[in-house]
TrEMBL record:
This is DUF3159 domain-containing protein. Keywords: Membrane, Transmembrane, Transmembrane helix. Pfam families: DUF3159 (PF11361). The chain crosses the membrane at residues 90-109, 116-134, 154-177, 189-213, 225-247. Residues 1-32 are annotated as: Disordered. Residues 1-13 have a biased composition (Basic and acidic residues). InterPro entries: UCP010219 (IPR016566). It comes from the Bacteria.
Length: 258
């Protein structure tokens, strides 16, 4: 007597192939870096798709009145007190750190992220600690030299290797992470604006380092202030206008096509 083999259940047509359940591909380095840079720009209020005015964007990038005061007051206080009374050195340094501490406390009370609230205080405290250790007022500016050198070098290298950081940030914000590199106009524009940013940081070094080595603390402090926000703001404006020109709002683009 023959036994019949049980019939195998038929596969339903709606059974999805295994490929459908494969995890999405991991983002590549360009996407990750662009996301990080674009996210940082958005936290500063810089978003080309927002349609905000140039003045509003520049003001947001500087952090508004609080950002301006946080950037200027600690350095200005050190410069004024040091000019009026160079000795004892700790007096001007303590006032500078104290002002930075006040701003940090205000940010913490307003529940700002700890990193942004304490970042400025840490930078001012490290600079002041170095100056106290060496006993030289000009060493209060040394950490800024390393910061400018690092920013300038990273921007310069990114432009020279064809992955300009400004392009990566703008490309991410505009949904064009890689497309800008295949457009000669965009690639050239992002190359030169990134070079311009690098030149700003190197210009600070070129002007301020000779004053540091000559021990001219008053001139060094003055030029640090002059080459800070007064040069940063126009660069933000130029960068913003450039990105808006390369990626015009959809309504403007449709008007031009008509």
């Amino acid at each position: 007597m023959s036994t019949s083999r049980p019939e195998e259940p038929e596969r339903t047509s709606d059974a999805a192939p295994a490929e459908q359940y494969a995890p999405p591909p991991a983002p590549d380095a360009a996407q990750s870096l662009g996301a990080a840079l674009g996210g940082a720009a958005q936290r500063l209020g810089i978003d080309p798709s927002s349609g905000a005015s140039t003045g509003h964007i520049v003001w947001s990038a500087m952090g508004g009145w609080r950002g301006v005061l946080e950037s200027v007051l600690p350095s200005a206080a050190f410069l004024i007190i040091y000019t009026l009374r160079p000795e004892p050195l700790w007096l001007s340094l303590v006032v500078s750190v104290g002002l930075a501490a006040v701003f940090s406390v205000i940010r913490l009370l307003q529940r700002s992220p700890a990193a942004s609230a304490l970042g400025g205080l840490v930078a001012v405290a490290v600079a002041a600690g170095l100056a106290l250790w060496t006993g030289r007022g000009q060493d209060n500016f040394v950490p800024g030299f390393f910061t400018n050198a690092a920013y300038g070098t990273v921007l310069l290298v990114s432009a020279l290797v064809g992955w300009a950081l400004i392009g990566l940030a703008a490309g991410f914000l505009m949904g064009d992470v890689r497309g800008w590199r295949t457009d000669k106009r965009k690639r050239r524009a992002f190359f030169w604006i990134t070079i311009a940013w690098a030149a700003l940081f190197y210009a600070r070094l070129g002007v301020q380092l000779p004053l540091y080595f000559s021990g001219n603390v008053q001139a060094l402090g003055t030029l640090k202030l002059v080459m800070g926000l007064p040069l940063f703001a126009p660069m933000v404006a130029v960068t913003w206008l450039l990105v808006r020109a390369l990626y015009p709002p959809k309504q403007d683009a449709d008007t031009r096509q008509e």
